[in-house]
Amino acid sequence: MRTKVKAAAAAATLAFGLVVAWGPAAGRRSQALENQAVRRIAKGEVQVSPAELATLMRNRQIALAIFDLRDEPAFHRFHLADAERGASLEAIRALPDQTVKLLVAENDEAALATYRELARLGARQVYVLEGGIPAWLALFAPASAPGALLAGALGGRHPASYPEIEHLQLPKYEPKVKAGTGPKKGPGGCGG
Known about the structure:
- The structure is a single chain.
- The protein has 192 residues and is an alpha/beta fold.
- The chain has 2 domains: 43 residues; 124 residues, Oxidized Rhodanese, domain 1, CATH 3.40.250.
- The chain is built from 6 helices and 5 strands, in the order αβαβαβαβαβα.
- It has a 5-stranded parallel β-sheet.
- Helix 5 links the parallel strand 4 and strand 5.
- The radius of gyration is 21 Å and the shape is elongated.
- The model has no long low-confidence stretch (mean pLDDT 81).
């Protein structure tokens, strides 16, 4: 019986020692990751142009996950094809490292705040749509009816949700995404 008590005391002492030793290291690691994220933002390394994202959406060799950070009504009015709304930070973080994770919001500020949080958690391959949905719509929405663009809840059924880039002259962009290889994607479209 004494041996069990001594073993339990030794295990408790060891656990306490690990908490004391590793606790500050985890905090320092988190802070270092956040500092690295701030530097990457300042260099413009995480802000992806709408033209680059449209190209990535058509590339079946890249595992791409798009996360829309806007509220539900905005999401239902319009969203990019295959975008997911309402995913938790942990769910995004849990995706494989080679999956390109792209955050979409109404503006850069909201998306970059989420990017910094994901960076603190150690998420890799996270990027932000530069200029948010307004920049996307400025490039891909039909110019013939700008006022009627978002009349009604079209979600991902609007043509600008998954534009036919083969027929467009996209603006030149500096590629930011350093894509790994992942599982091939299926065809695009809302809900599937």
